[in-house]
Amino acid sequence: MDLIDELTSRLNSVPGARYESDSSSITVFPNNTDGFTVSFTKNFDTYTVFFNGWHEDFQSADEAVGVFGFGLSDQCRLRESRRGSYTYKWTVESLEEEEWQEQSTTALLIFPFWRRRQVYYLQNSLLSPHDSLVEKLP
Fold first, then answer.
1. Is 20 exposed, middle or buried (0-12, 13-18, 19+ CB in 10 A)?
2. How far apart are CA 37 and CA 28, in angstroms?
């Protein structure tokens, strides 16, 4: 079975999961108003995972699938920094021992710095950390 087909099959068993997929990518939409979009793209020889504007490339399918599943769980949150209505920075945080720890940041170099800065915390809750979606692939 193809990797995207495998992820689609696993998401079919997740209550409330809304997603779109094609032959090389899958996008899961937030299940609440404070959630964020999580996408997985299969490239030629790498994989890319997106949480709204944050993204990271992976060589390993297992690692990419793990991060993809992590983004759908309540153990992950996305801190978005905005200037006015313009989002310019995304920071992934993980819940470790009841405290949020910064993991990775993606930011734009050009943004309307003169506008008032706002920070939003977004979080999904589709999966538990031990859900079958984040287990090793066959």
1. exposed
2. 6
The model's pTM? 0.90
pLDDT of residue 40: 97
Domain of residue 43: give its range.
3-134
Adjacent-strand bridge partners of 96: 99
Do the Cβ atoms of 39 and 31 come closer than 8 Å? no
pLDDT, averaged per 10 consecutive residues of the chain (138 residues), comes to 88 91 96 95 96 97 93 95 95 95 95 93 84 52
Cα 29 to Cα 60: distance, rounded to the nearest angstrom: 24
Give me the number of domains the chain comprises. 1
Closest to 38 (Cα-Cα) out of 50, 22, 48:
50
Burial status of residue 26 (CB atoms within 10 A of its CB: 0-12, 13-18, 19 or more): buried
